[in-house]
Each structure stands twice: as structure tokens, then as C-alpha cells.
Amino acid sequence: MKVNISHLILKTDNPINCQASKLRGHIGNKFIDHPLLHNHYSKEKYLYSYPLIQYKVINGQASIIGIEEGADLIKEISSDIKELKMDKHYIVEEKILHEKEFDINTSNKECHYQFISPWIGLNTKNYHTYVNMSSWKESKDFLNKILVGNILSMCKGLGIIVNRRLFVHSYFNQTKVQYKSVNMIGFTGEFKVKFKIPDYLGLGKGVSQGYGTVVQIW
């Protein structure tokens, strides 16, 4: 299935040093009438599907990814983003908008990806299972299955049907992350899978806040 993707890069007067959650908070508050930008409709009602707006801080630059209706929304609001009030005040000096149509689908060849931000694959349910595993191979197989599940969850959220079983081959390093003020285990590294994923989309937990961001190596 082909999806429309917009990638808005905001070049500021100084490099951005804070996490993408601050960017999400600023944009969500500025455009409070657009639920896609902050993923909740009211104090009690939240949007729990795959985020169609994803915020990133990449090499000191703010980026916002929009998918389908999120792509249209990014184009709509881009002219109104002139500053970013986060850990400090940044002036937006330049905006670059990339638009593309991408076929998210299975592939006959392995695609090689890298996580450029930590992937949060574990939750409260599977964390204890992971830390109590007895061997490296068992842990790796467990993480690979979780990652396949993350890819399928992304597809389900975008209305994409996957008609082939997926297998992941990976090389991960464990790292510490903080998500919603909670210390968690994250993973950096690379993986291969016969599936086409657009650059800068996220997998796992915290996707809207920049975690699990993927780029293709080859």
C-alpha cells in the first residue's frame, strides 16, 4: 500500500539539545485544536492508534513526520511555525518540506535498517520475561519477535495487510532511556527484514516522541 509522507525540517538559530517530547509538547499546545498533533481529544480520551504525526530531533534539528492525513496537516500548519519554545527559545530560520509517496510492503530482498534513536521494544509485561532469559540467543530471538510485532502493529494502524510471515535478523545494544519520566531499557543497532519501511518512521513505544526511528542503510 502506498502512503503519503511529509517530512518537515525546522532549522533553528541554535542546535536543539532537548528531547523530541518537548517539541511534541510545544506543537501540540500551539495547535491544540488538531488532535493528531498531540494524540488526545480531551483530558480523559486519548488516541491509541499508530501515530500519524511523529516528532524527532535529529542532529540538533527539529523534524516532524506526517503520514496520510498527518502529511496534509503538516503542510497546513508549517507556515505558522516561526519559533519553538522548549528548553529554551529557538527561532525557526528555515523550513524544508519533503513530500513522497512510499509503498510500505513486503520485499523479495532483505532491507537493512538502523535505529537512529533508541528502540523501546519492552513493556511492563514482557520486561521480566526478557531479563530472566537464560541465554543470549533466547533473548535475541525474543527481541526479534517483538520487532516483527511492532512492524505488524504499524501496518495495522495504517490499514496495510501483510500477507507474508516476517523474520528479523538483528544486532542490538542495550541502553538506558527515559520515557514519560520512567527509566526503561532501550536498544540501538541494526536489523534486516524483507519489508520496506520509510525512512524516519518509528517502531515500538514512544514513536510520537522520537523513539525507535528507522533509516535504511541499504
Structural overview:
With 218 residues, the protein is of the alpha+beta class. It has 2 domains: 2-102, Alpha-Beta Plaits (2-Layer Sandwich); 105-216, 2-Layer Sandwich (Alpha-Beta Plaits), CATH 3.30.70.1900. The protein has 4 helices and 9 strands; from the N terminus they run E-H-E-E-H-E-E-E-H-H-E-E-E. The protein has helices at 20-30, 69-77, 127-131, 136-157; strands at 2-12, 53-58, 61-67, 83-85, 89-103, 106-119, 169-179, 182-195, 214-216. The strands form 2 sheets. It has a 5-stranded antiparallel sheet with strand order 2-3-1-5-4. Strands 7-8-6-9 form a 4-stranded antiparallel sheet, with no helix packed on it. It is globular and about 50 Å long.
- Helices and strands, in order, run as EHEEHEEEHHEEE
- In round numbers, the mean pLDDT is 94
Largest sheet: 5 strands, antiparallel
Compute the number of strand runs: 9
User: Radius of gyration from the CA trace?
Assistant: 17 Å
Per DSSP, what share of the residues sits in E-state strands of 2 or more residues? 35-45%
Give the oligomeric state.
Answer: single chain
Silhouette: globular
| Terminus-to-terminus distance | 21 Å
Helix content: 10-25%
- The secondary structure category is alpha+beta
- In order across it, which strands form the biggest sheet? 2-3-1-5-4
- The count of helical stretches stands at 4
Domain count: the total is 2
